[in-house]
Design brief:
55% of the residues lie in helices and 12% in strands. It is an alpha+beta fold. Among the domains are: 136 residues, Butyryl-Coa Dehydrogenase, subunit A, domain 1 (Orthogonal Bundle); 124 residues, Butyryl-CoA Dehydrogenase, subunit A, domain 2; 134 residues, Four Helix Bundle (Hemerythrin (Met), subunit A) (Up-down Bundle), CATH 1.20.120. Helix 6 crosses helix 9, helix 9 packs across helix 17 and helix 10 packs across helix 16. The two termini are 46 Å apart.
Length: 572
Amino acid sequence: MPYTAPVEHIRFILEHVVNFSKVAETDRFSEASPDMVDAILNEAGKMCSEVLAPLQTAGDLHPAVLENGVVRTSPGFGDGYKAIAEGGWVGISAQPENGGMGLPITMTSAVNEMMSGACLALQLNPLMTQGQIEALEHHANEDLKAMFLPKLISGEWSGTMNLTEPQAGSDVGALASKAIQNDDGTYAVTGTKIFISWADNDFTENVCHLVLARLPDGAAGTKGISLFMVPKIIPDADGTLGVTNSMKVVSLEHKTGLHGSPTAVMQFDGATGWLVGAEHAGMKAMFTMMNNARLGVGIQGIGAAEGAFQHALAYANERKQGRTPVDDGNGAIIDHADVRRMLLTMKSEIHAARSIALDCAVSLDLANANDDQDARAMAAFLTPIAKAYGTYVGSEVSALGVQVHGGMGYIEETGAAQYARDVRVTEIYEGTNGIQAMDLVTRKMLDGGEMACRLLDEIQGNAEAVRGKFPTMAGAVWDAAENLRETTEWVVSQSDMNERFAGAVPYLKAFARVLGAHFHLKTAMADGGDGPRSHLARFYINRLLPDHAAHLAHARAGSDGLYAISADDLAL
C-alpha cells in the first residue's frame, strides 16, 4: 500500500517544537547531531516506504497461521523483518556495550512511527523486543544480559511479554502462573497466558518470553509476583541454542485487525526460566517494559493515523463526484468543504499527537542523560496522555479516512478500513485508555497537581510571549490552559477516587487538546504565521481546541449521575 514516510514533518517537530537540541547537547547523546538525525530519518524512512509498506495488505489478506504447532507468518514478513534487523532499527536506543546504537529514545520513537505507518502488524514485533531489551538492561543480572541482550538487539532473537491470563486481565495480581526453583538455580514456570503478541514466528532463531509468575512463598496480589525469562529454545551459556523448552502455542486468536501479527494463547509446562530482578519484584521490572511500550503504542496510533491520512488524501485528490464550489480547484472531492474539514482535522490531530509523543520522548532522554528527576517526572506525566491521545487519534483519523472514501471506504479492496481495524486495539492493549486516564488523575496527581501546573505555566508563558503576533490564537490557548488549571485543582481536591475516575477520560482528552494547541502555536511561531503550518494551527486552535470546554464540564460532573441508573435499569 503506498506510503511516504513523513520525514520532513518529524524533522520539523524535532527542530522547532519539542527542543530536541537539548538532548543533543548532553554528553550521553552528543552524537545525535542534525546530520545524524537526518541520516537516520532518511534511511529508516526509505526502508518503511519501499520495503515495509508493500507488506501492509499481504499481512491483512494472508494472516499468520498455526500449522502443527508452528506459526507461519504472512508472505514477505520475514524479508521485512530482516530489513529491520539488519538496519539496526531494533536496537537504536539499546546500550552500545551490548551491540545497540545508544541513541535517544526520541529517535526510536520517530523510526517506530514510520514503521507503524508502513505496516503496523509487523512493527509490533520489534516494539515488543525493544521493551524487553530495556527491562533486561535495568533489572537482569550480568549473566542474563550477556546471554540474551546481544541476540535481541541484533534481531536474531525476538522478545515478548506475558502478563494476561484468562482470569487476570487489568487485575494482574489475580494471575495463577507458578514458578518453582530448580536445583541448578533456574525455575520451572507453569501457567497459561493469553493475548501474547508475536508469541512465535518463523523468521527469528529464538523467541524470548518475559513471564510473570508467582513463587511458592509469593504473597497474594501484585506484590508477590516475580518475572522470569523463558526462551522458546534454551541457550547454553555461550548463547548456542540447545533443546526446545517446555512450552507451546495453543492457538492463535481470530482478530478484528492486525491479522499479520500472531496473537497467541501460550501454555508453559514446567518451562525452564531465569529470574529477572529480585524475587517478588516482577511488577517493577515489567513496568519498565510496559512504560516503554505505552509510549510506543501511542506512537503506533500516530503512525496508523498518518498512513490513513495519506491514503484518504490521495483518494480525495483523485475522486471526482458532484460539482465543487472551488473555481480553481481540480474538480475532485477535496474541493468540497466537508471533505476539506475532515482532511484538515486528520492532519492537525496527527501533528498534535506526534508533538506530544515526541515531547514525552525528549523528556525521557533528558532524564536518562542527566539523571534529571524533573524531566523524569515530566515524562511520567506525559506518558498516559501520549499513549491515550496517540491511539485515540489513530482510531479517529482512521475512521475519518473511511468516511473520506465514502462507500468505497467500506469496501476492503480500497485498504481504508484496514487502518481502522488494525489500529483499534491500540486503545486497549498496554493498559486501556481508561486505565491511562485513571493513572493520570491519581498516581500522576500524587504531587498535588504540581507537575500538571508546571506544564500549564509553560503553556501560558509561551502564549503570553507571542500574544502580540498571534493575539487570537495565543489568547485562546492561554484561556484554555486557565480552564484546565481550574479543573486540575478540582481533580486534586477530590478525596473520593471514584469522583476522579468518573471524569478521567474527558479530563485526559482536555489536557491533550490544550497540549495540542500549545504545540500548534509553537509551530505557527516557527512557521512565521503565514505558511501552511500556521494555517493548520489556526484550524486546530479555532475549531478543535473549543472541545476542551465540553471535556472539562464532563470531567467535573462527578460520579453520581453514572450510578443514578442501576445495572438492572440499563437492561430495560
